[in-house]
Write a structure and sequence with these properties.
This protein is mainly β and about 575 residues long. The protein has six domains: about 1-75, no CATH class; about 80-175, no CATH class; about 180-270, no CATH class; about 280-370 and about 395-430, no CATH class; about 435-465 and about 530-555, no CATH class; about 470-530, Signal recognition particle alu RNA binding heterodimer, srp9/1 (2-Layer Sandwich), CATH 3.30.720. Strand 26 (about 290-295) and strand 27 (about 300-305) form a beta hairpin. The protein is elongated and about 110 Å long.
C-alpha cells in the first residue's frame, strides 16, 4: 500500500488489522515518525472479546529510507507450519507463552520476547517439552523428540528451517519423521511389528500417510488389504535406508524402499515388483548338482535344481544380509555369495558330495557322532585298513564348480556351472575393455547465483553433500547408525581435528584416531560421506558410460514485498 501525503513532522499512528487469523480479527497501532527505530514491535490484540479473554500477537515493523521514499515492512520473524496433523504446541525455551498449532491452513506467527536466546521447545498431547532447539540456522533440519511418559510413547518430528520469499521471515515446517507412500497399484495394509493388538492401517494407491511408532522395534509388516492377517509379510526395518522385496501370498512380491532420515523425513515407499528389484537371481547350470541357498544365520533353505533359476529375496529382512551357498545335503562349511560386485571363482568338492546332493533330505547331511563340526572337502581323509594300496587307489574323485557374478541389466545374477568354458565366457563378458578416455570429478558442493541488471541476486541454485553418517559395529560385520545428536558431536569433532572426545558429563567417550567408541555404546566406528556431485565418464572402443550422482539440490528464489510510505 502506498501513501502519498502525510505530515511526518507530527506524530502519526497507523492502525493495523489482521483478519481471520486463527479464527479471530486482530488490531494494533504503530506510531510513525522520523524518530522511530529501524525495527519496532507491534502488539496486536483480538477484537470484540472481553479483556480477560483477549489473546495477543506480536508483529514487527522494519523501516528504511531509500530513493526518496520511506519503506515500512510488516513481518513476523517466524512462520511455524504444522504438517504433522497433531496438536503441537510451541514456546520459547525461557517463556511461558504458548503458541498452539491445531490448524493446517494457518501458520503460527511466532516470535521471541528475548532477543538473546532464540531457542524453542515443542510438545504434543500430554508429552513433556522437548529439548531446546535453535530456529536461526537457515537451511538446517533435524529430529525433534517429544516423550509421553504416561502413555510410554515417543513422538518424532522432522523440523526444517528455510528462508521464506518474504524478507526477515523464516519458514519453520514441522512434519512427521516417518511417512508411508503407496506407489503400487493396489490397496495395502501395514502394521507395527511387536505391538500387542496392533492396528492395521489401510493405504490406497498414491496415498501418503504419517506413521507414529508405538514402540522401539522400528519394524513394520505388510499385507494386501484383502489378505488375512496370518498371511502378512516378514517384518522389515524402517530406521535404516534400504530396499527390500517382501514375499507376499501366491508367489507375489512388493518392493519396499526406505530412504531419507538425514536431510529429509524418512519415507517408506511401497512399489510394485519389477525386474531388477530382487537382490540376486541364481542360475544353476550344473548337470548333476543340487544347490542349497540360505541367508547367513537363518534356518530357511532353498533348493536350486540343475538347469533351474531362482529369484531370491531375504528370508529375514531385519537380519544380516549375507547369502550363503552349498551343495544340497553337504554337511560342510558353506560359501559366501558375492552379490554386491562383479567377480568369479571356483570351488572343488568331492564327487561323493555331488552324489549326496541328489539324494532326498532337508538339505543337511548328518553322519557320524559329531555332525555339527564343519570341515572342508580338503580335510576329508580315509583311514588306512592295514593293507598296502597303490597311491592312486585311495585318491578321491573331485569336481570343480565355477561361479560368476555379473549384472544382467538391472538384475544381479550369480551363475554356477561345472563347465570351465561357460564360466570363462561369462567372466570375460564382464571384463571391461581398456579405456581410451576416462574422467572423474568429485565436488563437496557447488553453487550458481542468478543476478539481474541491477546486480541483485534473484535466484540461487546449489548442489551440496549430505551430512556424514556415523555407524558403530554392534556385532561382527554388522553396523548400526548412531543417533542424530551423537552423530553431530562426532562430526563436529572430526571437522576440527579432535582425536579424543570426552564430554563434561562423561556420557560420550570416543577415539576418532583409533575409530572406536566406549560410551554411550561400545564398538568400532566408521564414517560414511558422499560428495555433493560425483561424475565418472569412461569410453572404450566399443562402450561408453556416464555415471552421475547428485546428493541434494536446492533452488532459492528471492521476492521482495514492502509497504511503501512517502
Amino acid at each position: 500500500m502506498a501513501i502519498y501525503s502525510t505530515d511526518l513532522t507530527e506524530p502519526q499512528s497507523m492502525k493495523i488489522q489482521v483478519k481471520q487469523y486463527l479464527s479471530a480479527n486482530w488490531e494494533g497501532h504503530l506510531p510513525v515518525s522520523r524518530e522511530m527505530k529501524t525495527t519496532e514491535s507491534i502488539t496486536m490484540a483480538t477484537k470484540q472479546v472481553h479483556s480477560d479473554q483477549r489473546k495477543y500477537l506480536t508483529l514487527w515493523a522494519h523501516s528504511s529510507s531509500e530513493g526518496g521514499s520511506w519503506d515500512i515492512l510488516l513481518y513476523s520473524p517466524y512462520w511455524f507450519v504444522n504438517k504433522s496433523e497433531l496438536p503441537v504446541e510451541i514456546r520459547a525455551s525461557r517463556s511461558r507463552k504458548i503458541f498452539s498449532t491445531h490448524s493446517l491452513s494457518d501458520p503460527v506467527l511466532f516470535t521471541f520476547s528475548n532477543s538473546k536466546r532464540k531457542k524453542a521447545k515443542l510438545r504434543v498431547f500430554d508429552s513433556i517439552w522437548s529439548a531446546s532447539f535453535s530456529l536461526d540456522t537457515v537451511g538446517s533440519s533435524g529430529v525433534v523428540t517429544c516423550k509421553d511418559e504416561d502413555h510410554e510413547r515417543t513422538y518424532q518430528f522432522w523440523l526444517d528451517i528455510r528462508m521464506s520469499h518474504l524478507p526477515f521471515t523464516k519458514l519453520v515446517t514441522l512434519t512427521p519423521y516417518f511417512l508411508v507412500h503407496n506407489k503400487s497399484d493396489q490397496e495395502l495394509s501395514y502394521a507395527e511389528d511387536g505391538v500387542k493388538a496392533g492396528v492395521w492401517v489401510n493405504i490406497k494407491p498414491t496415498e501418503v500417510l504419517p506413521f507414529w511408532p508405538g514402540s522401539e522395534s522400528m519394524k513394520l509388516i505388510l499385507r494386501r488389504s484383502t489378505t488375512p492377517d496370518n498371511l502378512s509379510s516378514r517384518p522389515f526395518l524402517i530406521d535404516t535406508p534400504c530396499t527390500t522385496v517382501l514375499r507376499m501370498e501366491r508367489g507375489t512380491g512388493v518392493t519396499v524402499q526406505v530412504e531419507g532420515g538425514v536431510q529429509e523425513p524418512t519415507t517408506i515407499t511401497f512399489l510394485p515388483y519389477t525386474s531388477g528389484h530382487s537382490p540376486v537371481r541364481l542360475d544353476n547350470l550344473c548337470d548333476d548338482v543340487n544347490l542349497r541357498i540360505n541367508q547367513k544365520n537363518n534356518g530357511g533353505r532353498h533348493l536350486v535344481r540343475p538347469h533351474r533359476s531362482l529369484l531370491y529375496t531375504w528370508d529375514d529382512p531385519t537380519a544380516e544380509r549375507i547369502l550363503m551357498w552349498n551343495l544340497y545335503n553337504r554337511n560342510k562349511k558353506s560359501f559366501e555369495c558375492l552379490i554386491d560386485q562383479d567377480g568369479w571363482g571356483k570351488v572343488t568338492v568331492s564327487s561323493e558330495s555331488v552324489n549326496r546332493s541328489t539324494l532326498p533330505g532337508d538339505g543337511l547331511y548328518v553322519e557320524g557322532d559329531d555332525a555339527s563340526v564343519y570341515s572342508t572337502d580338503d580335510e576329508e581323509v580315509t583311514e588306512p585298513d592295514g593293507l598296502l594300496e597303490h597311491p592312486l587307489m585311495n585318491k578321491k574323485q573331485r569336481t570343480t564348480i565355477y561361479w560368476v557374478s555379473y549384472m544382467d541389466g538391472l538384475q544381479r545374477v550369480l551363475v554356477y556351472t561345472q563347465s570351465s568354458r561357460i564360466a570363462r565366457a561369462a567372466a570375460q563378458a564382464q571384463v571391461s575393455e581398456p579405456a581410451t578416455l576416462e574422467f572423474l570429478a568429485s565436488l563437496q558442493g557447488i553453487g550458481v547465483s542468478l543476478v539481474n541488471a541491477a546486480y541483485e541476486e534473484v535466484a540461487y541454485l546449489s548442489l551440496f553433500s549430505s551430512p556424514a553418517r556415523w555407524e558403530v559395529e554392534s556385532k561382527a560385520n554388522r553396523w548400526k547408525a548412531l543417533g542424530m545428536e551423537l552423530t553431530g558431536v562426532l562430526e563436529n569433532a572430526w571437522k576440527h581435528g579432535q582425536e579424543v572426545i570426552v564430554d563434561d558429563e562423561g556420557t560420550i567417550q570416543a577415539d576418532l584416531r583409533a575409530q572406536t567408541i566406549a560410551k554411550p555404546v561400545q564398538g568400532s566406528l566408521r564414517r560414511i560421506h558422499n560428495p555433493g556431485l560425483w561424475l565418472h565418464f569412461r569410453k572404450s572402443d566399443h562402450h561408453q558410460g556416464l555415471h552421475l550422482k547428485i546428493q541434494k539440490i536446492q533452488v532459492g528464489v528471492l521476492v521482495l514485498m514492502v509497504l511503501m510510505v512517502l
